[in-house]
Amino acid sequence: MSKREFKVWRGDAAGGKFVSYPVDVEEGMVVLDAIHQIQRQQAPDLACRWNCKAAKCGSCSAEVNGKPRLMCKTRLDSLPDGEPVTVHPMRSFPIMRDLVTDVAWNYTVNRKIPPFTPKKDTQWLMQQEDVDRVQEFRKCIECFLCQNVCHVVREHDKKDHFAGPRFFVRIASLEMHPLDSLDRIPLLKKEAGLGLCNITKCCTEVCPEEIHITDNAIIPMKERVVDRYYDPVQIVIRKLTGKDKKD
């Protein structure tokens, strides 16, 4: 057993600071283990959100050494040895207390997305490739690390005009479903603000479920928006049919 210094952000919406805590480190420990040890032995009032400790609930999201991660999935032996481990709440969302942030905005965005609506009198048959495509998107555990790392949400505060990577994934899962009957392309272009994404792939890099957010969800949705609204032939057809007025 050895000791390691943890610098944990303590405070609330009014402000705060990093507080140092020495932690007894054992083999196989993850960051969440260290936070629990600090709660037990040194700071019982330290606020931290967690649930399953199996990287499936998405509750323990934080910034460890400046990178958005799940604390329960971040092993201490994966971090630079001999250096303090910093733990900070997600910076894209309002801080409630210590490591707990208010992510309610995400659920507000989610409610704006029309749910899966099957075609009338459809036969419930799908090709395996369609099943695989949709299944990847459904692995999302809503940890919101992708939302936190996205510069449009984090640095430009475009929450009123931008849905963020997590919800581009959800819309893609519905748009690519062969049995769904709704059209969400106008939502992507306007209210969801897909055009603000400049494809940095930072969301893909932090996804704990290794969903290919950019390549398999965002880029295909951008292509559909471009085909619909910027292809010259489509523009003429939409004007002739009056569909451009509806969108």
Shape: elongated
Helicity range = 25-40%
Domain count, please report it: 2
Percent strand = 15-25%
Mean pLDDT: 93
Protein structure class: alpha+beta
CATH superfamily of the largest domain: Alpha-helical ferredoxin
| Low-pLDDT segments | none
What is the CATH domain class of the largest domain?
Mainly Alpha
Radius of gyration: 21 Å
Distance between the termini: 63 Å
CATH architecture descriptor of the largest domain:
Orthogonal Bundle
Can you list the strand order of the major beta sheet?
2-1-5-3-4
Order of helices and strands: EEHEEEEEHHHHHHHHHH
What kind of sheet is the major sheet? Answer: 5 strands, mixed
By DSSP, the count of extended strands is 7
The helix count comes to 11
CATH topology of the largest domain: Fumarate Reductase Iron-sulfur Protein, Chain B, domain 2
